[in-house]
Amino acid sequence: MLNSFADLVTYKLLGLLKGSPLGEAVHFFIYDTIKIFLLLTVIIFVVSYLRSYITPEKTRKVLSGRFGFLGNILAALFGIVTPFCSCSAVPLFIGFVEAGVPLGVTFSYLVSAPMVNEVALVMLLGMFGVKVALIYVASGLVIAIISGIIIGKLKLEHWVEDYVYQIKMGEQAATSHGMTFAQRVEFAKFATKDILKKVWPYVVVAITIGGFMHGYVPTDFFIKYAGKGQFWAVPFAVLLGIPLYSNAAGVIPIVKVLFEKGVALGTVLAFMMSVTALSLPEMIILRKVLKPKLLATFVSIVGFGILLTGYLFNAIF
């Protein structure tokens, strides 16, 4: 139905020629914009409703009592369903440290939350299908868990800024306690509107760029320079993604086109992961609570995991 609507608008109402670069670009924009916003609205509402049971305060309490490997797994899983953005990295980190959550467990959460959130999952399902979405989620969780375990084993607590251990944030109210069904629905509606309000410009800009690439970039261009046989493509994709200020909503429509144009799956995954987990703005914010050596260790471990993921999936698929 969406495809028929995009056909009607593009070729009948606008009179664009089917198969022409402009026609293909406009059709891509109309079809994918409607599809993505429908998916985002429905699934973010469902996830937000479920999230009304899992607040950051509850997350903090659960993680503070789970040490070792189980703590890293739980932290990475909580990262999928709890709110997180670059601006909340510092207070979340301080809250976890104050609650006694081990450093390695905290980092499993810090990697998982921006990389494998509900928006990323929804858009991956809508644009790549179940197979790629599951691969991406599994890869992100593995990187988050292993990164946290390694950082925990290295005992780097002395590389956290000293003032973090002196802050007392106090107990925050567990806002979800005692909520009725109607209140949870209202919470989900508010959260859905709030997330859509934040991500819609990224989605529209990204789909516009994706539409241009879909219509105007020759099919063999990316196969030649970033196809499966190009060894340097994975590290280049990681380096390219780090300085970009975007989130999953902003980058996924672009990488979908890159994938369709012939960029290898591992290279695409590496690019997405570097944008969402190693973005320069987030690193600048984390520098407020981490000493340079710990920040560099974090970037090195996660970066190595992303590179490994890229090469692994390029070799398999």
Automatic annotation (TrEMBL):
Keywords: Cell membrane, Membrane, Transmembrane, Transmembrane helix. Its main location: membrane. It is found in: Cell membrane. InterPro entries: DUF318 (IPR005524), UPF0718_permease (IPR053166). It is a multi-pass membrane protein. GO terms for cellular component: plasma membrane. The chain crosses the membrane at residues 28-50, 70-94, 133-152, 199-219, 231-255, 261-281, 293-313. Belongs to the UPF0718 family. This is Permease. It comes from Carboxydothermus pertinax.
